[in-house]
Description:
Blueprint: E1 26-42, H1 45-57, H2 62-86, E2 90-102, E3 105-119
Antiparallel strand pairs: 1-3, 2-3
Amino acid sequence: MDSIIRSQAADITYNMTTTGFDLPGFRIVANLGVVRGIVVRSRSVFGTFGAGIQTLFGGNISLFTELAERTRQQAFETMLVQADVAGADAVIGIRYDATEVMSGVTEVICYGTAVTVEPLSD
Length: 122
């Protein structure tokens, strides 16, 4: 892959992804292996300052929530691109993990098993 994130547009639709190990209505034909999307993000000084202000009032810290959601979405989309490149129709067993690489820098990984499927016969 030329860049970390290709066009962010995989042919695998969200309804062909699952945290389970089967896909209702489909039979797994081939296991193409593990695919993953990795994003490493840092908090900006301004974002950290703004979030610090939000903590004074309590409740949801929306700046961090939005950053976390964007990061997870980007990792998910990157995983789908990897699965698409591998020739998959679907991704099963999807999981997320996060690790603090250094203070203020977090790695988020989304991974699953790329598979090809065929519809079940009636």
